[in-house]
Write a structure and sequence with these properties.
Strand content: under 5%
Largest sheet: none
Low-confidence stretches: 1-17
Radius of gyration: 21 Å
Oligomer: single chain
Helix content: over 70%
Number of helices: 9
Distance between the termini: 31 Å
Number of strands: 0
Order of helices and strands: HHHHHHHHH
Length: about 200
């Protein structure tokens, strides 16, 4: 099929610019070092880790695209386990199979394990020192900002508008005010998205 026929036939699949720009798998050492750095320099965990993960795997190494990264965040949050380890396992498996998944997961978890182990061994000796308490008091609001920024960015990329902004709003009310289990929210959202994609969106 010629290029002219491809251009005139929108049903023919052509790689997206984002997919075409992705880089092939790096060595196991690079994968481990990248996720070790992510685990070592991120404070707050969870959503606070998103900016650094995105900077490393999407912007710097180009292992996955921005759209896939957004989908991966949804998957990692929906599955049991630690957020960062879920993401690292997925990327490692995609690039280097099972060995890559284990390598990336270990790289992400090892810094936290070592740091928490040291804190557990010595924290009781200095937890009541005034300047230590002041340090933690200063870290708390910074962590809130680290969580708020990626949450806002994700809302923009997920195309949250005035039409569908009721979804996160109602979800927050159900969890905060009514005590609904988040698992039920995730299941309902997944089923609702499936039904929307199958029966409503195609007819628009």
């Amino acid at each position: 099929m010629t290029q002219e026929n491809i251009n005139n036939n929108p049903s023919v699949y052509t790689p997206s610019e984002e997919g075409a720009s992705l880089k092939p798998a790096s060595s196991m050492a690079v994968l481990f070092a990248t996720f070790f750095r992510i685990g070592l320099f991120t404070i707050g965990g969870g959503y606070a880790m998103i900016p650094l993960i995105e900077a490393e795997v999407v912007n710097k190494h180009k292992w996955i695209g921005k759209t896939e990264f957004l989908d991966l965040i949804a998957i990692a949050q929906s599955c049991p386990g630690v957020f960062a380890i879920n993401i690292s396992t997925f990327i490692g498996y995609k690039k280097r199979g099972t060995a890559g998944a284990l390598c990336c997961a270990l790289g992400t978890a090892l810094p936290s394990f070592l740091i928490i182990l040291l804190i557990a061994m010595f924290f009781h000796n200095f937890q009541n020192i005034p300047w230590v308490a002041s340090v933690f008091a200063g870290i708390r609001p910074a962590v809130v900002a680290l969580i708020a920024v990626p949450t806002w960015n994700m809302a923009v990329r997920a195309k949250i508008t005035f039409i569908n902004c009721w979804i996160p709003f109602i979800t927050a009310i159900l969890i905060w005010a009514l005590g609904v289990n988040p698992i039920y929210i995730i299941l309902a959202a997944g089923i609702g998205g499936f039904l929307y994609g199958q029966f409503i969106k195609p007819t628009e």
